Amino acid sequence: METITPAYYSIDLKESDLRVEASNDDRAGIARFTPGRSTGDSFYVIVMGFDTMYNDSTVRILSESSVEYSNPVHRWYQGTGRPAGFSGHHMLRFSRPALSYGIIHGYTSVRPGEKNGKSGLEGPVAAYFEFTSESSVSVAVGSSFVSTDKSRVNLQAELGGNAFDLEGLARRVSDLWEEKLSALDVQNFNEREDFDATVTESHMRLMYTSLWHSLLLPRHHSDSDGEYLSFGGSLELMRAEGFTYMDDFSAWDTYRATTPLQLLLYPEMAEDLVHSLVVKAEQGGWLPIFPAWNSYTAEMIGDHCAVIIADAFVKEILDKSSELANVSYEIVRRNALELPPVADYLEGKGRRGLESYMLHGFIPLENSLPGSYHSNEQVSRTLEYAYNDYVVSQFADILDFKDDSELFSFRSENYRNVIDADGVGFVRGRHRSMEWDGDDAEFDPNQKYSWLTEATPWQYTWYVPHNVEALIQLYGGDKSFTDKLNSFFDGGSYNHGNEPDHQAAFMYAYAQNSSDGAWRVQQRVRSILDDMYRSGPGGLPGNEDGGQMSSWFVMAGLGLYQVCPGCGGHSEYVLSSPVFDLSRIRVTEGNWFEIFAVKSSDSDMYIQSAVLNGEEFDCAFIPDRVIRAGGTLKLTMGMYPNKTWANSGRSCLARY
Is 52's pLDDT higher than 60? Predict the structure, then answer.
């Protein structure tokens, strides 16, 4: 049997008849091993320093009830195999002395009584502790990315004098998660004749599990006293003052829904997110693209840490008149305009292909992006840089840097250079000569090409989040655009298991006076929610990708999705079809934004009419500032679509 909650984990190991339980805070935790009747006279706990690739792990037994070990961290992606400049350090204390202990070298060499070990060519190193089966054994674990001494400090700071009180820790952490998850309150009412408690329970489990997943990354990297080792491997000891230093930003994935969700429900996170990215840039010299392992990686594409930063300011969560705003902008601006020296570029710093992008207005196929972890992918990079440039233009605008705003706004139109609207009707690779790649007759929009990132032309064709209205015109106008979207979905080309087209279902709402407008958003999104997510094992449609897959479910399940994060005047959410009868978003303590979806049956997925704060609301978009002010949106739902409701695209926003 296995039990998982945000605060507690347990599993029964049948072969050894052991029950294993665990709970943890940020930097320390407790595990407990309870033998069963058939365990035998004793059982072993093995503490492994697993590092077969680099042979750098060390284990040191301090006594019959304590051990420490360190695993040096090595980089992946750009710089694979090189030291990341820090280690994972752990201190373990057992609740009672072991019957025996020793070191295991490799997989077969057992050395009783030995206290020190290091991984080697023969395999990993581990410490073993043998305990009698007379009672359970608990182990308190402290961790640090600075030193083993600091792992002791963190253990004391988070567990104090209750180092083996598993139930007490689980209760405390459960209370912390309860407070965190209660920023969102969703309910279904049971007055309806077809009310199904089983369906409601499944949706509730999915919603709150997804919200939990959305908060797991980026993670806290600094110690309990704020210390951490400098970003980029310099080994300098730093201290986070006034914020918690965070790492592992899966930015290419999470800027889409995870960060907008975090900023919506937990605006206090903005300080940690932005400060962490800013100090990374200050310590390493350049704003990272995909910071992981406290290092530059050049994994994935785009410049989406700039989006995370800008979104916090354009939504006015952080003060645009602060010193942090100006420092942040200069860092973002540098990434958009300057190319790092070759040595820095090879370390994974800076936008890949920026020189070509600025020279040609796109990245030609002749530039295969040497020195990048991902080669090629020129079209995807062009599209994403164009979006990034628009975000920078909006950031510049709120800081009154008008010349910069105009420059980056102009560059944001570069998506036009890689969309063959008059030919094959899709995004397409392009040569320096301006000729399109390949023959029109051989072009296949469902094929993956080297000039795209993990997707097909069908899936990237919708990637103009900052100017959907212009994209509509490129594809022949509103009806032609929605017809194309229908072909995309009905033909099976949509791939929810990866991120490039995650916004596509919401783009119907931008069409004006189309028979396939806002109601299609409601239909497509509900179909994805129902078909792609399950509450059991294998319940996600793809890699969690730092919380993005779950965050999409949370936002779409609320009936909200931001197509263009960081876009200033585009800081609004597209309305879809809420899963729950009532969804409450805590905007400040005691102040909520409530979304009522008034239904007569579970099959009522289509919005018939809407009332916002007591006034008729005929718009498929709702501004971020409206939600943050608190209030009530009442949606009357029905079984059949109302094709005339909210059929004016974004123009309706002028009234709200």
Answer: no
